[in-house]
Amino acid sequence: MRKQIRFTAVALACAFAAAAAQAEITIGVSLGTTGPGSSLGIPYKNAFTLVPKTLGGEPVRYIILDDESKPDGAAKNARKFVTDDKVDAMMGSNGVPSGVAMAQVAGETKTPLVSLTPLPPLAPERAHWTFIVPQPTELMMSAVAENMKGKGIKTVAFIGFSDTWGDLVYNAITGLAPTYGYKVVTNERYARADTSVAGQTLKIMAASPDAVVVGGSGSPAATPQIALVDRGYKGPIYHNHGTVNLAFIQTAKKDAEGAIAPTGALIVAEELPADFPTKAVSLDFVKRYEAAYGPGTRNAFAGYSYDGVLLLDAAAKVALKKAKPGTPEFRAALRDALEQATNVIGTHGVYNMTPANHNGLDERARVLVHVVDGQWRLLK
Predict the structure, then answer these.
(1) Looking at the structure, do residues 93 and 210 belong to the same domain, yes or no?
(2) Does the residue 128 lie in any domain?
(3) Distance between CA 160 and CA 173 in Å, rounded?
(4) What's the pLDDT tens digit per position in 350-375?
(5) End-to-end CA distance of the chain
(6) Does residue 162 have a cis bond before it (omega within 30 degrees)?
């Protein structure tokens, strides 16, 4: 009888140890897969069919909810993740206002947030828990500014979203203007759901700028592109890294030709030099993404989701040595490990986080592309 009791105790101990070793990590993901941001949100979501099934070697469960491209929806999802699902970290969303709303919840609840959109400067308690995957707007728009300087452009008109994303792009190009020798002559805005920007376009045409910069994203970025081309504008039209997807081209059609934008290198992975640091990762992801979703479907946004998972994987390997998933201690350890993530090679760039830099990307994370024959191609 004693032998049987001992055997049972050993078996239970082994079972407990095995269960502990397979502690599931839970990640809450809020994305705008409906609403005006859906052309971005759907690719973001698609990437989760291609990510590893583990983080740091442990099983991972992704809870993906639609926030309808609304900040209040993103905040509601974030609170549900924390209170109901007891997540270890959050990811999202695909619009700047929604990302800001999630960052607020992250700071209040001390839950790591891997932001999938660029964000404006955050209050210290929010910034402490938030890590940003996409390239900073200033970094990307400086590539545009360099190109404009090379073309001798002196006057630039701006038209962008009437929200935080429009502000980020506008602030970037105005901040870069003194260095690169141009003047911003308009600040026109439109809502993401607007179907016409006729009035704004007339004001831009009246200003006769050498170039136009569009601060939109996804398919809604096509609205001013179409309007400017239809009005006969002949100067270069620059966009930002929020525009580079197939939906923009499908919406603008022939009017998309010639549009210029900065983006991560995965969009033109095949055209990169052999020694480009992200080429191997980008090529692998693009191959698998297009095999799943069709030729030409590659986009920067799915790459952001994938890179966010790579960052969490690197951080989980460290955090699991200090605490178990599902605990405040693990969330804190995961945050600390994200802050120390170094040389994480993603589809967009090489991430080197620090306490002062919760993005960690540099000039290797950007290239300029333009639309040629209905495709985004490397601008050489």
Answers:
(1) no
(2) yes
(3) 12
(4) 999 999 999 999 999 999 999 999 99
(5) 80
(6) no
CATH of residue 98: 3.40.50.2300
Q: Which domain holds residue 212?
A: 137-263
Residues 89, 161, single domain; the answer is no
Helix, strand, or coil here: 141? Answer: helix
**Among 320, 167, 344, which residue's Cα sits nearest to residue 242?**
167
The verdict on residue 191 lying in a domain is yes
CA 171: distance to chain centroid?
A: 19
- Residue 272 in domain: no
Question: What are the pLDDT digits (tens) for 62-120?
Answer: 999 999 999 999 999 999 999 999 999 999 999 899 999 999 999 999 999 999 999 99
Strand partners, 114: 91, 131
| pTM exceeds 0.90 for this model | no
8 Å CB contact between 324 and 330: yes
How does the average pLDDT of the chain come out, rounded? 93
Same domain, 359 and 238: no
d(CA 27, CA 12): 29
In a domain, 289, yes or no: no
Please give the tally of structural domains in the chain. Answer: 2
Q: Token digits for 143? A: 């590539």
Q: Looking at the structure, tell me whether residues 130 and 202 fall in a common domain.
A: no
Report whether 226 contacts 250 (CB < 8 A): no
Lookup: tokens for 198: 């006729």
Is 152 in the same domain as 227?
yes
The kind and range of the H/E element at 288 are: helix 279-293
- Of the candidates 209, 30, 157, 182, the one whose C-alpha atom is nearest the C-alpha of residue 106 is 30
